[in-house]
Design goal:
alpha/beta, TIM Barrel, 12 helices, 8 strands, about 45% helix
Length: about 300
């Protein structure tokens, strides 16, 4: 995919059936965006054989980035990737009118699809969620992946509502499911229309989701360990569960520690230990505590 060109119509059917990474936004000590480190991380992910990168997701601390910073970060990721992997862009929020406006006005050159999170804070009903995503789907210039993460939004997009949207809007091509509710996720997999992607949004249960028929992951942990995490997903998608399990259990301690004291603080600490970026996050987030950092550092240093 060449920069400056939307090519979703020509994308192979395997898009999304693999490993995407919700990339962090590195910051300098003064709080400014560290574009040099962002370039290092993009190269690290591509070298680690991930299939796509998600810019401006929760892990990218998009809630604390200005419009100007969002534009600069997105353009930098696209430029560094230079067509070597697909780029998915996070555009969502709790103001439907503003989301629609952003979808209509954002420059999507070099972007493959949109990831749109459930509205947070407002706590809409399922009908409200349906109407929100209906409006987004009608405005979107690219295919849309729904993002259900009730642990952050206090609002669960149920399987019934997800399936309603999936069947009614062809440009809603999938859901990133981070509810942790396997029964809900399995019902979506069972009853989805052909080609609708069910993508894990929870690193620790990615293997079970793929085993149930899911299509891959948008990962946090793969910021640090793209090679092993993406290989685990590929092995599972190929039905090689013995190999997939080995990599899954190799990553479980690291995964638990990265989320023990908040995300993306944990993964940024790991990236700092690995020399890829500094660990800074923006308030109201703070760095992980010393005990967690010590345990994480030991795991990172001994990881083989």
């Amino acid at each position: 995919m060449a920069p400056g060109k939307n090519t979703i119509k020509n994308k192979p059917s395997q898009f999304g059936k693999c490993t995407g990474v919700a990339i962090v936004t590195p910051f300098k000590k003064d709080g400014s965006v560290d574009f040099k480190s962002l370039e290092k991380i993009v190269e690290h992910l591509i070298k680690g054989n991930v299939e796509y990168i998600v810019a401006l997701g929760t892990t990218g601390e998009s809630a604390t980035l200005s419009k100007e910073e969002k534009l600069a970060v997105t353009k930098h990721i696209i430029a560094v990737a230079n067509g070597r992997v697909d780029i998915v862009l996070g555009i969502g929020g709790n103001n439907t009118a503003e989301v629609v406006n952003s979808l209509k006005t954002t420059d999507t050159k070099g972007i493959t699809a949109i990831l749109s999170v459930c509205p947070y804070y407002n706590r809409p009903t399922q009908e409200g969620l349906y109407q929100h995503f209906k409006a987004a789907a009608k405005a979107a210039p690219l295919p849309v992946i729904l993002y259900n993460v009730p642990g952050r939004t206090s609002c669960n997009l149920t399987d019934e509502t997800t399936l309603r949207l999936a069947h009614e809007f062809k440009n809603i091509i999938g859901v990133k499911e981070a509810s942790g509710n396997l029964a809900q996720i399995m019902n979506i997999i069972k009853n989805r229309p052909k080609g609708f992607l069910v993508i894990s949004g929870d690193d620790l249960i990615t293997l079970p989701i793929v085993a149930c028929g899911g299509d891959g992951v948008i990962s946090v942990v793969a910021n640090a360990y793209p090679k092993d995490f993406s290989e685990m997903v590929r092995q599972a998608l190929s039905g090689n569960y013995e190999e997939a399990r080995k990599l899954h259990y190799k990553l479980t301690n690291i995964t638990n520690l990265m989320f023990a004291d908040g995300s993306p603080g944990g993964v940024k600490a790991a990236l700092d230990i690995m020399g890829l970026c500094e660990p800074h996050v923006r308030l109201p987030l703070v760095n992980i505590n010393k005990k967690t950092h010590s345990a994480l550092a030991e795991e990172v240093m001994n990881y083989k």
